[in-house]
Amino acid sequence: MLTQWRDDMATGSEAIDRQHKELLRRVDDLLKGAKNRKGGEEIGRLMWFLKKYVRWHFRDEEKLQLESGFPGYQGHKHQHEIFFREVLRLESLHTEQGDNTLMIVAVITAMCEWLRSHFNKLDKEFIDYLKATGQDQGSGGSNGNDDGNGDGELR
Q: CA-to-CA distance for 9 and 15, rounded, in angstroms?
């Protein structure tokens, strides 16, 4: 299942991998909720999380890319912008349609596509660049702690 962390998903950056694992966990919560007929509850949580996630995760990645001189920065940033617009589109759709099966499927489809195309490919390219240039420190960016709870996770 795409929402389960596998070792081959590791980018080599502890901070980025931690943030990716959190996204996977949230999408998996939606899948489990949908199976248990509680998808409506989970979709609202995921939509709130995604708006926060794209801010702190993309900020961390882009900062690290700029600091490292990553030549693919502009293309990577463009992909982040596309995904942010998709999150806003899904949020608008959710507001219009509410918690229904089609909405849940649309969100799961968008998230799985993002996971497959972005962090399984583009993020790995960035980490490969860091390693090739000797800049991989095993971590990078902030801990994503925008809510002040001290544990690096959004709630």
A: 13
Rounded to an integer, what distance in angstroms lies between the CA atom of residue 15 and that of residue 63? 13
Q: What is the pLDDT of residues 76-87, one digit of tens each?
A: 999 999 999 999
Judging by beta carbons within 10 Å of its beta carbon (0-12, 13-18, 19+), is residue 141 exposed, middle or buried?
buried
Task: Please name which of 85, 120, 111, 94 lies closest in space to residue 29, comparing C-alpha atoms.
Answer: 111
pTM for this one?
0.76
Task: Read off the pLDDT band of 69 (50, 70, 90).
Answer: very high
d(CA 53, CA 44): 14
CA–CA dist 122, 61 (Å, integer): 11
**Regarding predicted confidence, which is higher, 152 or 126?**
126
As a whole number of angstroms, the longest Cα–Cα distance in the chain is 49
Q: Cα–Cα distance between 82 and 34 in angstroms, integer?
A: 26
